[in-house]
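SAMPLE LOG
Freezer: B-3
Tube label: C17
Construct: single chain, 427 aa
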Amino acid sequence: MKKSGLTRILTVGASAALALALTGCANGTGTDSPDKNAGGVTLKFSQWWEPELPEGTFRALMDDFEKANPEIKVELVSGPYASTKEQMIAGAASGKMADVVGLDGAWVNDFAKQGSIADLSAIMSEAGYDDSQLASQIKVENKTYMIPVVNFPYPMFTNVDLMKKAGVEEQPNTRSEFEVAAKQIKEKTGASGWVVPLSLEAPNGIQNDVMSWAWASGGTMLKDGKPDVTNDDVKSATEFVKKLWDDGVIAPGAFTMKEQDKVEEFTNGRVGMMIDSLAHINLIRENNPNLNFDITAMPAKDEYKGKRGMAYASWGIGISENTKNKDAAWKLVEYLLSPEANAKLCENAHAFPGNMKAKPNFDSEDPMFQKAYNIWSEGSPANEFTGLPVAEDLMRSYSQNLQKVLDGSMKIDEALKATQKDWVSKF
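STRUCTURE (predicted):
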């Protein structure tokens, strides 16, 4: 499988000051002493992956691991993405983070600077692990803290029945076609044309749903690795979102909506189009087997002729710095990144491997995944937030100012200048 943009190693310098807000009561699981089980070790593995996979498939992988490592048991601590993040923040604050943790690349810099997650470079070196087989690694100060296990593109999802009812014959390929489709869906079906989550509590909608409009047309929000959010690429994307808002085609409740809320709106047939992860295909099918939906590449500027950029996210994995079970934890990480287990996980998740030697047997009878693979192969992976210092604070800052633009209390140029000033201060 072609890896192109994913084979690079993402590295972050040490210039940023840590600004992670730690709120709420600590409710993470304890890792200050080994958790023994019948003479062995029980690893707590906190992640949001299990609910997004076909039922029982992730537990089956853990069962296979336990059979190969009878001295180790795995207790899955599973929940939605947003609540998993909140639990990890609380666990990091109290020093009680789970032994093994699922990670988003946007969290890595903060957790690493805080000392909550372990240096995987040292662990891999001690274990004699050949990291050349990894598709990518997320580093801070040249030390690996997260390894992407699987990678998901974020295409455009469309409700086929709503599109037909609205008289939209083809999937939108450009911004102008998307705008027309969104208007027709709203006017002729009563459903919202598009949904965007702008919650300040979980601001990853800025990465996945807003900045992706700039990346789709080859745009950027950085210059020489530094903030550049006043440029024409970001301004154009912001203007486009503002136009959709003024047209009244965006689903209500955007200012407090999180990613799982967005997916529920689409799954329940209340929204015609959304930008979302391939990881949710299984979830959508399970929750609404009758929903007729499809995917397409992100619409680009009408005049754009280059490679279509596509936001992507990873299910990354890390190890708690405080766990007394680092050896056992690494065995689990290594297992999930082994060619066989990684291929099986990718097949279940409809994702692309974190191990370049993995050979998933992608189901040729699933045309949607085959289409996703074609979109991915023909485009260019894009996610400029991965590994940035206080990445979620950057998203939150942009979202705060975007909300002011949408409610009419701030002009776009003013909002982007304010965002640029705030971002620069965090670098």
